[in-house]
TrEMBL record:
It is found in: Cell membrane. InterPro entries: Poly_Biosynth_Transport. Its main location: membrane. One of its GO terms (cellular component) is plasma membrane. This is O-antigen/teichoic acid export membrane protein. It comes from Sphaerisporangium krabiense.
Length: 450
């Protein structure tokens, strides 16, 4: 089994374990807090993620663009931690003030504000781990944090102290544990910190910031709009539907993490080839997992979450096509960063967000979570279509290049099922032709695999 195949198996297995643990947490919070409390918790998390996306200024995109210069990599690693904490400290008072002005309690505002440095540092360090071709660092850190999170939620629920704010605080603590694992594994050195490079990273990131904010805010805006235009109960139903949709992303996210360094490094033709292979594999993986979840949803949701959440089935069925479409565009977005055309990417993302908000304003008051999910499916499909069309145009690739080949379907199916039997074939799909640029020597030595 090749190194790429082993890492793919490890990443899918780790993501599956994390998702299973998260599902247990989701069930506990749903049954303890019921729809209203689950909706409040979902809104708090959505606010925190909105603060992360807005306050992070897309510096992780700057890291990706600058990573091609090998001489900058030690400084980018050191900068990730320092910049993450400082950017979070800058965003915290703004987020807290906005929440207080919006009518939230002081305790809720303080909790969300305090999570900002942790979340932004997590975002930056996660990007560095992927760029250094060390997906195992990300996998292990996330699994450790998730186990601590699950144990703390179970303890709080058994003690009868699990509220929406407590659930959020435990989620933020999980992110903190993950950051600590990243720091231990990546070992950013303070002496490598480069203030000039930090400014340059932010400058590059800001060019993509508006587009990234629009893309990242799509699911968070949906939750907030359902809570505002319908009810927190409907927001709770929508949150469970999106949690189920996340299951379809497991193999795609694993694949995207593995191929990301190969897309950023190397020549243009090589990056195009890797991106096309990844997009085709992502399509089959997402289609298979989404179809299976759609078939099981009507029985699975009431059984796991309870009859109170049966209303989450219809929203999930509506958003599923959008999840499949977005999966195809997931690896394509990384390639588009190479082109240095931030305003084209920004216009597509901003257009998608505006369309999402406009349609949600019309449909949520009438159909609640189901209307929002239908809008989300349409918008995700439209955005993915625009990104794929741009990719095909600038690379001169015919549209059939995105269609899966019969020789690759078996590989994608096996990868979606943890690549248990056909992992060597998966390795060939990921590795492509010979001559792939070797990983960073330091990262290779530490990972021992890749």
């Amino acid at each position: 089994m090749t190194g790429a195949a082993r890492t793919l198996v490890h990443t899918i297995a780790a993501r599956g374990a994390v998702t299973a643990t998260s599902a247990v947490i989701s069930v506990i919070t749903a049954r303890t807090l019921l729809a209203e409390g689950r909706g409040e918790y979902a809104v708090l998390v959505a606010i925190a993620w909105a603060g992360l996306v807005l306050g992070g200024l897309s510096a992780e995109q700057g890291q990706t663009v600058l990573w091609a210069d090998a001489g900058l990599r030690p400084a980018l690693t050191a900068n990730a931690l320092v910049m993450g904490v400082l950017m979070g400290m800058s965003a915290a008072p703004v987020v807290g003030a906005v929440m207080l002005l919006s009518g939230w309690s002081a305790s809720g505002a303080v909790l969300v504000a305090a999570s900002m440095p942790v979340l932004i540092a997590w975002e930056y360090l996660c990007g560095i781990a992927l760029l250094r071709d060390r997906a195992r660092v990300l996998n292990n850190g996330t699994m450790i944090g998730c186990l601590v999170w699950c144990a703390s939620v179970v303890t709080a629920a058994l003690a009868g102290r699990l509220t929406a704010e407590v659930a959020f605080a435990l989620w933020a603590a999980y992110e903190l544990v993950t950051v600590a694992c990243f720091v231990h594994a990546l070992r950013p050195r303070a002496r490598d910190f480069d203030l000039g490079l930090a400014r340059r990273t932010l400058g590059v990131g800001l060019r993509y910031h508006l587009g990234l904010v629009s893309t990242q805010l799509l699911p968070r805006v949906d939750v907030l709009m359902v809570g505002a235009l319908a009810s927190t109960g409907q927001a709770g139903l929508y949150a469970v539907a999106t949690a189920l949709a996340d299951l379809a992303r497991i193999p795609v996210e694993a694949l995207a993490k593995i191929v990301m360094p190969r897309q950023v490094e190397g020549d243009h033709e090589r990056a195009v080839e890797v991106t096309l292979r990844a997009a085709r594999a992502a399509f089959v993986m997402a289609l298979v997992t989404a179809a299976g979840l759609c078939a099981l949803a009507s029985a699975l949701v009431p059984l796991v979450y309870g009859e109170a959440f049966r209303g989450s089935v219809a929203p999930f069925l509506c958003v599923a096509p959008g999840i499949v479409s977005a999966s195809v565009a997931r690896p394509i977005w990384v390639f588009l960063l190479r082109l240095g055309r931030p305003w084209v990417a920004t216009s597509m993302s901003v257009g998608a967000l505006c369309l999402d908000v406009a349609l949600n304003a019309l449909l949520i008051p009438r159909w609640g979570a189901t209307g929002c999910a239908a809008v989300s499916g349409i918008v995700l499909t439209a955005l993915a279509g625009a990104q794929c069309a741009w990719f095909l145009r600038v690379t001169g690739t015919p549209a059939r290049g995105l269609l899966p080949r019969w020789s690759e379907i078996a590989v994608s199916l096996s990868a979606a099922a943890r690549a248990a039997g056909d992992a060597p074939l998966a390795g060939r799909v990921l590795a492509g032709r010979r001559g792939t640029a070797p990983p960073e020597p330091e990262a290779h030595a530490r990972s021992g695999n890749r």
